[in-house]
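Hi R.,

As promised on Friday, here is the backbone we talked about, encoded as structure tokens. Could you run it through your design pipeline when you get a chance and send me back a sequence?
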């Protein structure tokens, strides 16, 4: 899976994403997916770099 797919899959598992004045449920879902993808990518990079020092 590519990071974007992981992010979308993670957000699709949530039952209720609230909307309020700061953002709609759709917006929050997109932001959550992007943040999850970014975290996954950074974690994979750090794990790869860390493994090369072992």
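Update: got your reply. Pasting your designed sequence below so it's all in one thread:
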């Amino acid at each position: 899976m590519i990071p974007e797919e992981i992010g979308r899959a993670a957000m699709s598992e949530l039952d209720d994403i609230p909307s309020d004045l700061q953002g709609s449920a759709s917006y929050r879902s997109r932001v959550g997916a992007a943040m999850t993808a970014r975290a996954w990518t950074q974690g994979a990079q750090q794990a790869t770099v860390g493994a090369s020092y072992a």
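One thing I noticed while checking it: Residues 3-53 form one domain.

Thanks again,
M.
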